[in-house]
Design goal:
heterodimer; A: mainly alpha; 2 domains; 61% helix; B: alpha/beta; Rossmann fold; 10 helices; AAA+_ATPase (chain B); transport (chain B); ATP binding (chain B)
C-alpha cells in the first residue's frame, strides 16, 4: 500500500523536523521556567507568614497559625500611627458602635495584600459564631447550617460510568493530546509543503516520485511527528502525575484507575485521526501557492474542530450530538474514544467507527494527491475553491 | 533510448503554448531546444517529463525493446527551469535523498556522488549546507542530482543559466561526459555558442512553433546561404556612411575601421566589394559562414516578419 519511495519521503520529513538537541533544550527550558514559577510562588507566598492584627479589647477571637490577634490598650489614633510608622501591626480592626447608622467592621492596613482575604474569612467565622451565640444556636446547629447540600447522583443507565470519573480524565487527556498532535502536524505540513513549493523542489521531485507517493510520504512523516509529540506530552503528563503522587502527596504511584482496554482502542483512533487530519492539511497546503498571501492556511484549523465539538458535549456522552460525532468519520477519532471512556459500548460500535474512519482516510489521501498534482500543473496560479471541490469529486489521478 | 514526438500541441486557456511540434531524438544524442522566452520550450519539456499531457499529438519512447507513451520516471533525469533543493541540508544529504528516491542504495549513491562531486570540484564542500554555496555551485549540485542514477534520458531546462563562462565550459564538459556514458540529453538554452559546441540536433522555436530543426548544417541550409564578410579598411568609417553606400545590407560596425557585412541569398559578394572599393581602401577581407547565434537572430527576425505579414 505504501511504496518504498513514500517511506523514504516519510523518513526525510520526520527527521527534517526532528532536531533532538533543540527539543531537549526546549524541555530543559520548560522545566527551568516551571521551577522558577514554583520558586517564585514559594518565596512570595504570604500565607506562610504570621500577621499581627490589632483588634478591640472585647474581641474573643482566637489566634491562628497565620494571625496573632492583639488587643492594645492605646487609642485608635496611636494604633494607626504605629501601624503607619513602625508597622507594629499589619492591620487594625475596628468595629462601629452598635448605635452607628451603618454598623460594620473596618480593617485599617497600609495597602491591599493577599493575606487580607484569609483574615476576612477568619473574621467572618468569628462573627458567625457571635451571631450564633446571640441566637442561642449550638455549635452543631451552626455547623449544619454552614454545610452545603450533599446531592448524590444515581444513574440508572448501567453503561454510564459516572460523571467525574478517572475515565473522564483520560478522555480529556486524549483530547489535549490530539490537540497537541494536530497542532504539531499543522505547522509542519504547512511549512513543509508550501516551503517546498516556494523553494521549487516539487518539480524536481515530480520527475522522481508520483504525486500520490509524495503526498503519502509527507502525511506519514508528519503524522509520525505528531504522534511523537503526543507520546512525549503523555510521558510528561505521566511524569507530573508521578511527581505529584510521590513527592507532593507522599503516596505511591497508583495506576489501578486506568482502563487499559479503552487505552488500547485509543491508539488506532488517534493514529488514524492524525493521519486523516494530516491528509486534509496536506490537501489544503498543496493548493496554496504563497502562504504569505493565501488565506487558505486558516482552513487547516478545521482539524481542531472535532476536539472542540467533543469537549462541548463531553458531559453528555450518551446524547445525540456525541452519538453523531462518534460515528461521523471526520470527528469520530476524537469523539469515539471519549465516549468509550465514559460509556460501556459493545465492541462492534468502535470497530465499525474505525472502519468508516479508514475509508475516509483512504479517500482523503487520494484527494490530497490529486490536489497536489493539479495545483502543480497550474504553475504559480492558486486554484479556487470551486476547482478544489471539482478535483475532490472527480476520480482522476495522474 | 529513442524519442519520437509527433505533432504535439498544448494550450493553456487562450494561449497556444505549443503548436504541432514534431522531432525525433536518437539514443546517445544531445538535442537542443532553442528559442526566446515564451517560445514553448519549457512547455515541451513539461510534457516530456509527464507533468502535463499534450492536447493532441503523441510522444513515443522506445528503450530496450520496450515502448511507452511517456517517459518513465526511472529512465528520466530532470533539471527543472525553477531550480531548488533543500537549502538547510548539506549537499550530501540532498543528493543522497534524491538518489535513494531514484532507487539507488546508499553505497551506490555515495559512489556516484563522489564521482560527480569530484568532476565539479565540490568534494571538500559536500558537508556544507546548500544555502552556504554560491548560485553557480548550487546549480552544479542540481545538475548532479539529475544524473546520479544514470538515467537513459536527461532533460535539462536552461543548464547554463546563472553560470559564469568558466562554469559554462564545465557544464559543456559535463554534458559531453553524459553523452560518452550513452545518455540521451535534451536541453534548452539561450547560449548559442555552447549549444553549437554540443548539440547533435536542435529545434528552433518561436511562439510555440518549430521554425528550424536538424543538425547545425541542416539549419544553416534551411536558413539560406547566409554569409558574413569581415572587412578592415585603412581610414575611419562611420555606420551612416556604410548604410549610405550599401543601403540593402545588414551592417555591423565593430571598430572605426572594421565592420561586418551580412549577405543573404541573391546578394553578390563581388558586386558589394566593387561598390566598397570605390569609397574605401580595403586592407583585409575575410568570408565567414553565419554562426548559430546569427542564424537564430535571422530566423527570429524572419519569423516575426512572416507573422506580421
Amino acid at each position: 500500500m505504501i511504496s518504498r519511495q513514500s517511506m523514504i519521503v516519510a523518513k526525510w520529513e520526520f527527521l527534517r523536523f526532528f532536531k533532538w538537541k533543540q527539543q531537549l533544550i526546549s524541555y530543559l527550558l520548560m522545566m527551568a521556567v516551571m521551577a522558577a514559577v514554583a520558586l517564585w510562588s514559594y518565596f512570595t507566598d504570604e500565607s506562610r507568614k504570621v500577621y499581627r492584627i490589632a483588634v478591640p479589647a472585647q474581641f474573643s477571637i482566637s489566634n491562628t497559625e497565620q494571625f496573632q490577634f492583639q488587643r492594645p490598650t492605646i487609642a485608635l489614633d496611636e494604633q494607626l500611627a504605629q501601624l503607619k510608622d513602625s508597622e507594629s501591626w499589619h492591620g487594625v480592626v475596628t468595629v462601629s458602635p452598635a448605635t452607628a447608622a451603618e454598623p460594620g467592621v473596618v480593617l485599617h492596613t497600609l495597602a491591599a495584600k493577599k493575606w487580607q482575604q484569609q483574615l476576612e474569612t477568619e473574621l467572618n467565622n468569628y462573627f458567625r459564631q457571635q451571631y450564633a451565640t446571640e441566637l442561642q444556636l449550638t455549635p452543631a446547629q451552626l455547623t449544619r447550617l454552614q454545610q452545603p447540600l450533599a446531592l448524590e447522583y444515581v444513574y440508572l443507565d448501567e453503561d454510564f460510568k459516572g460523571k467525574d470519573t478517572p475515565e473522564k480524565m483520560i478522555a480529556l487527556g486524549v483530547l489535549i493530546l490530539l490537540f497537541i498532535g494536530l497542532s504539531t502536524a499543522f505547522g509542519q505540513v504547512l511549512l513543509s509543503i508550501t516551503g517546498e513549493k516556494q523553494q521549487r523542489v516539487t518539480e524536481q521531485l515530480y520527475a522522481i516520485v508520483t504525486p500520490q507517493q509524495w503526498m503519502d510520504g509527507k502525511v506519514l512523516g508528519h503524522s509520525l511527528s505528531a504522534m511523537k509529540a503526543m507520546v512525549t506530552s503523555a510521558l510528561v503528563m505521566l511524569l507530573v502525575f508521578i511527581v505529584v503522587s510521590v513527592v507532593v502527596r507522599d503516596n505511591g504511584v497508583n495506576l489501578s484507575w486506568v482502563n487499559w482496554g479503552v487505552l488500547a482502542w485509543l491508539v488506532p483512533f488517534a493514529l488514524l485521526g492524525v493521519l486523516l487530519s494530516a491528509c486534509f492539511m496536506g490537501a489544503i497546503a498543496a493548493s496554496i501557492d504563497d502562504p504569505n498571501t493565501s488565506g487558505k492556511g486558516a482552513v487547516m484549523m478545521i482539524t481542531w474542530l472535532p476536539m472542540l465539538f467533543t469537549y462541548l458535549v463531553i458531559d453528555s456522552p450518551t446524547g445525540t450530538a456525541m452519538t453523531i460525532l462518534s460515528w461521523l468519520p471526520l470527528t469520530s477519532f476524537a469523539a469515539m474514544p471519549v465516549k468509550m471512556a465514559m460509556v460501556e459500548l459493545p465492541w462492534w460500535q468502535p470497530a465499525l467507527s474505525l472502519l468508516l474512519l479508514v475509508a475516509a482516510l483512504w479517500w482523503m489521501r487520494r484527494l490530497a494527491g490529486r490536489i497536489f498534482l493539479r495545483g502543480m500543473q497550474m504553475y504559480g496560479k492558486e486554484p479556487g475553491w470551486g476547482q478544489i471541490v471539482g478535483w475532490a469529486l472527480s476520480n482522476k489521478s495522474e | 533510448m529513442q524519442l519520437i514526438v509527433t505533432a504535439i500541441s498544448k494550450d493553456y486557456g487562450p494561449v497556444a503554448a505549443v503548436r504541432q511540434v514534431s522531432f525525433q531524438i536518437n539514443s546517445g544524442n544531445i538535442f537542443a531546444l532553442l528559442g526566446p522566452n515564451g517560445a514553448g520550450k519549457s512547455s515541451i519539456i513539461r510534457m516530456l517529463v509527464g507533468m502535463t499531457r499534450p492536447d493532441s499529438g503523441s510522444i513515443l519512447v522506445s528503450h530496450q525493446d520496450q515502448h511507452y507513451d511517456h517517459v518513465p520516471r526511472r529512465l528520466l533525469g530532470y533539471l527543472p527551469e525553477d531550480r531548488g533543493l533543500y537549502p538547510d541540508k548539506s549537499i550530501e544529504k540532498n543528493l543522497l535523498y534524491l538518489a535513494q528516491l531514484h532507487g539507488l542504495s546508499k553505497q551506490q549513491a555515495l559512489k556516484e556522488m563522489a564521482h560527480w562531486l569530484d568532476v565539479f570540484e565540490l568534494t571538500d564542500r559536500r558537508l556544507e549546507d546548500l544555502k552556504q554555496l554560491s548560485k553557480g555551485n548550487q546549480q552544479k549540485v542540481q545538475l548532479i542530482a539529475a544524473v546520479l542514477h544514470q538515467p537513459a534520458l536527461v532533460i535539462l531546462d536552461e543548464p547554463f543559466s546563472g553560470l559564469d563562462p568558466i562554469n559554462q565550459e564545465k557544464v559543456v564538459t559535463f554534458l559531453k561526459a553524459l553523452k560518452a556514458r550513452g545518455m540521451t540529453v535534451i536541453l534548452s538554452a539561450h547560449q548559442m555558442a555552447m549549444v553549437e559546441k554540443l548539440a547533435d540536433h536542435m529545434l528552433l522555436m518561436a511562439q510555440g512553433k518549430a521554425i528550424l530543426s536538424g543538425t547545425l548544417a541542416d539549419i544553416q541550409q534551411q536558413a539560406g546561404p547566409q554569409r558574413q564578410i569581415h572587412i578592415s579598411c585603412a581610414g575611419p568609417v562611420t555606420a551612416e556612411q556604410l548604410q549610405q553606400w550599401l543601403p540593402e545590407l545588414d551592417i555591423e560596425l565593430l571598430t572605426a575601421n572594421r565592420f561586418v557585412l551580412r549577405l543573404s541569398a541573391g546578394q553578390s559578394v563581388s558586386a558589394t566589394l566593387k561598390r566598397l572599393v570605390n569609397e574605401l581602401e580595403l586592407t583585409q577581407v575575410e568570408m565567414q559562414s553565419a554562426d548559430l547565434h546569427q542564424l537564430y537572430l535571422t530566423a527570429m527576425a524572419e519569423h516575426q516578419r512572416r507573422e506580421q505579414a
